[in-house]
Design brief:
mainly alpha, 8 helices, 3 strands
Length: 181
């Protein structure tokens, strides 16, 4: 919320709050070293929120960006390494330190998480992050019958909303077909 308030108002107080949170997670309590990283509702806000902080740093503070870059990449790399299924969908909960997937459920917030990958790909030119998004979007038709949150309307809405957000940036035909299903 602070990052969005910063962009809406230009008030540097919001940027300072964003940077305090970014420092907390990316310098002092790295997600890649946590016992749990939730990629579902609210957990996805950590990953995506850190990408919003990262984006602000890319535009306003190159030194901060440089300081955060190693952990931002470690976190995203670890997610790609152990927290996705064969089609690129993300598991809801995993242990970044051990690689243990603690929930085989796929998060309906996969799109919000992958938004962070696109942000970092755009800033740092890391093609494997863009490729990961392309991969999941291309494979979405294989998941048309997946029961998001055991078939809840909120689960479907979150999945579709996150997917549409990515499709807006990467209009991959398979993903568009999936969204129109």
């Amino acid at each position: 919320c602070y990052s969005r308030m910063y962009w809406m108002t230009g008030n540097d107080v919001y940027r300072q709050h964003v940077f305090a949170l970014g420092d907390f997670f990316l310098l002092h309590h790295p997600p890649s070293q946590a016992d749990e990283l939730r990629l579902d509702d609210h957990g996805c806000e950590v990953v995506n929120g850190l990408s919003e902080a990262y984006y602000i740093a890319s535009k306003t503070d190159p030194e901060k960006l440089k300081a955060w870059q190693p952990e931002m990449h470690r976190m995203l790399d670890r997610i790609l390494e152990v927290a996705r299924d064969e089609n690129g969908l993300l598991f809801s909960l995993f242990n970044p330190k051990t690689g243990e997937v603690k929930s085989q459920d796929r998060t309906d917030n996969w799109g919000y998480n992958y938004n962070a990958f696109l942000v970092v790909a755009d800033i740092d030119g890391v093609e494997k992050y863009r490729d990961a998004v392309t991969f999941v979007l291309t494979n979405l038709p294989k998941n048309k019958e997946y029961l998001w949150e055991n078939g809840s309307s909120d689960g479907y809405a979150d999945s579709l909303e996150g997917g549409i957000n990515l499709i807006n940036r990467m209009p991959i035909p398979e993903a568009i077909d999936w969204a129109e299903f």
